[in-house]
Fold this sequence. Notes:
- By secondary structure, the protein is an alpha+beta fold.
- Helices cover about 30% and strands about 40% of the residues.
- The strands form 4 sheets. It has a 6-stranded antiparallel β-barrel with strand order 2-11-14-13-12-15. The chain has a 4-stranded antiparallel sheet with strand order 3-10-8-5, with no helix packed on it.
- β16 and β17 form a beta hairpin.
- The two termini are about 65 Å apart.
Amino acid sequence: MKIFIGAGLLAASTALMAGCHGGGSAASAVETAQARVVESQQREVPVNVRATGAVHARETALVSAQFPGRIQQVLVRAGDTVRAGQTLAVLDDAAQRAQVNQAQAEVKAAQSQQAAAQTDSSLAASTLGRYRQLEAEKSVSPQEMDEISRKAEAAAATLDAVRAQTDAAEAQERSARTMLGYTRLVAPFAGIVTARMADPGTLASPGVPLLQIDQAGALQLQATVDESEIGAIHKGMKTQVAVDGASFANIAGTIAEIDPAADSSTHSFLVKIDLPSSSQLRAGMYGTAEFANGVRSAILIPRSAVVARGSLNCAYVLDSQGIAQLRYLTLGAPQGDLIEVLSGISAGERLVDAPADRDLAGKRIEVQQ
C-alpha cells in the first residue's frame, strides 16, 4: 500500500513537471513579421547657415510732398502699375501759381529796366567815342572829357546792376515754377503701388509718406545673418532660397549686397539676395536662405524609417537576434530622402523601413526582399 502511494505521487510529480516544462516552451516562442530592413549610415553632410527675412523690391520709393499743401487728387490705388513720370497725386497749387505770376511780373519789370539801362549805356558809350575824336583834335577840354567818361562808366555800371537784377528775377521765376511742379507728385520709376497712405483733402507735410512704389522687375530677399556667421558668406555667393507661398521648393539666389555694419541691437548683418523673376514671388513674402559653410559628419537614416508616436519620433531597431525594439530618436535636418539622427541610433544599426502603423516591438523581423 505504501509502495502504491509513493508511485502515485511520483507519477503526479512527473506529470506536473512535464506540464510546467511544456508551458515554458510556449511562453518563450517569439512572433515573427516580414519587413524591409535598412541600415543607418555615417556620412559627410554640408553645414549650412540659415537666414530668414522678407522679399522686397530691389528699389522702393516713398513718395511725399516737398512743402505743406492740401491734397486735391490721388490718382492711383494700391496694386496699380505705374510708369516712370506718371502723376500719382495733385496738391492745391493756388499759392504756387500766385508766386509764379508775381515772379513773371518782376522779370518783366527787370527786363524793361535793363532795356532802358542798355539804351543809356549805349548812348553814353557813343558820346564818349565822339569826345575822344574831339580830344585828338584838341577840340575839347580835359574837364569835359572827364565828365563824359564818368557818365559812360556810370551808365555801364547801372546796366550791370540791372542785368544782375534781371538774372535774380529770372532765377526767382524758375524757383517758383519748380515749386509749382512739386504740386504734382510723380512716380520716380516704373513699378507697382504697394501702399497708399493718404486721400484727397488730407494735409500733406514734407517728409510724410503718401504713397509707396516698388520698382518693377526682379525681387530681393533681405535676410539677417548673425555676426558669428557672417564670415561664411560673401558678395556673389550662390544660395538656395525657400519662399513661403511659392510652389517650387528651392530658388537659386545670388548675394548682391552685405551691409558693411551690423545692427548694434541685434548683432546681425542685413544681406540682400537677388531672386530670379517669377510671377509667384511678391513683395512681403517670408523666405529662408541657406548658405554653405563646409561639411561635418552625421548619422543618417531614411525618412521612411521614422514613425511617430504622439509627438515623439521613433524607429524600430533590430538587435543581434533580429528582434525589433522601439527606440526614441532626436532628429536633425533632412538631407533629401534621408534625415539626420542626433541621438538614439549609432552608425551601422539595422532598422525596419516603412513600418506604417504596425506594432513590431518584440517581434523577430524576417527580411523582406
